[in-house]
Amino acid sequence: MQLILLLSFVSTNLPYMNENRFDNKLSRPGLAFQPLYKQVEEQVTQLIVEQRWKPGEMLPNEFQLASEFGVSQGTVRKALNSLTSSKVLTRRQGIGTFVSEHTGHHGLYRFYPLIGDGKNPELPKAELLSITTETASKKVAEALALKAKDKVIVLIRRRILEDEFCIAETIYLPYKWFKALLDEKDVPHTLYHFYQTNFNLTVHTIRDSIKAELATQNDVDMLNIGLGEPLLEVTRIAQSLNDKPMEYRISRCRSDKYHYLVELN
Amino acid sequence: MQLILLLSFVSTNLPYMNENRFDNKLSRPGLAFQPLYKQVEEQVTQLIVEQRWKPGEMLPNEFQLASEFGVSQGTVRKALNSLTSSKVLTRRQGIGTFVSEHTGHHGLYRFYPLIGDGKNPELPKAELLSITTETASKKVAEALALKAKDKVIVLIRRRILEDEFCIAETIYLPYKWFKALLDEKDVPHTLYHFYQTNFNLTVHTIRDSIKAELATQNDVDMLNIGLGEPLLEVTRIAQSLNDKPMEYRISRCRSDKYHYLVELN
DNA sequence: AAGTGGTCTAGACCACGGA
DNA sequence: CCGTGGTCTAGACCACTTC
């Protein structure tokens, strides 16, 4: 009898996977069920996408979020730590939890793997040569998950390290998200931070395919190198926080003094 | 035996950061203090290095490990999950926790980023051309953290994908750890699994530097390609579980039909 | 001193896989 | 059926930062 009473008390209080739980905004029954902490992760990500918290802003503390989502503080913590390990959030003891900014040497560098031989990583400057609008080619449309005749904005840049051209880049952006870019007067060197602050599009993951190529006449003109010299061609698809492709870029990189660096574990 | 010794060092049931804790083998006072779960991570890693559990073997369950290390089950769980995310362990619900094996498509692939264009990842076969012993050059000694005149074992291989040579590799291994390799009759295609099972050396992290190069006469002979064609040269340093460099390799890869793939997040 | 995230513990129940 | 890891909660204390 005591056992029964105890059980009924527990189930009203806050049981794990109680039926009441399914009335909660967070929980779903059946096959599509996700653990609560994953649901919290998704909710928080969605709220960032919706700009409830902007990059650099501080989130409420764990207990406030816990009561908002109707879960315990420990579950919120697990979700926040998971988002921290995927670089969406930054946590600082004694301070708070912040939406990561793609700025400085922490967040940005990891997507700039081209290093001068024997040197420390350094962010190159960029010289913007043109901004145009085109109809996406088949390859570009596929990479950006666009329809056949969708428009894209095309940027052509040269990147400069130590007063020397090192990379020639062609960048394709979906017109539907980036059309305001055409009116922009000053497109900065650090595009990913610019995307984040001006278009609310944060680069979350990238996929680089690397090939070796010979310098064409165009490369010679762009990079001031000899015809037929070997170059690294890096083809990149960048995905946003909600896993939609947001940038397609082809970078042709001098390889005589620079190398592409990867660390895996 | 180790278990008994370890248990004898463990002080009684302990509160968090109690003074008694500092008598525990796991805890250290002062500046070098590490959280308990990190200490458990290090201990478990060390025990794997010492072969208390071999690759593929199952560890004791969380409660047994907890009592052995004198911490709570939750702390052990945090340590085991962390080691799982760094690919040292593999956990399967309902089964147990295992030391990761560098085999099959799960553990091995992540270190083979060369993909046929438009194809799915596939492990290449290898043709071993020579095994020799040399004195390490300055560059090799530096990469492998060896003394000036230490010896290294040098393997030269060609790798084959779909009946075609795609990579020419030169591999340098510290003689002190790999000397038994000289007596080996059958060196298999999958070296990292071989290192793990025969030499108790598990590749944990790699660092690849990628450059574009022109095919030399040697490349022409090795890969059956045209002189002056562009190649990817991948220079790799592989580190073991205890972060010591264990392999230095230079791979010259055909780039006409293959590309090197990186995903970052 | 107050507030934050970080660590640690304890205990409950669930889901999976094998006997 | 049992044992495993997975999820969730609750509550304690520690360490860092700012005021």
From TrEMBL, chains A, B:
PROSITE patterns: HTH_GNTR (PS50949). SUPFAM superfamilies: Chorismate lyase-like, Winged helix' DNA-binding domain. Gene3D superfamilies: Chorismate lyase-like, Winged helix-like DNA-binding domain superfamily/Winged helix DNA-binding domain. Keywords: DNA-binding, Transcription, Transcription regulation. GO terms for molecular function: DNA binding; DNA-binding transcription factor activity. Residues 34-102 form the HTH gntR-type domain. This is HTH-type transcriptional repressor DasR. The lineage of its organism: Bacteria, Pseudomonadati, Pseudomonadota, Gammaproteobacteria, Alteromonadales.
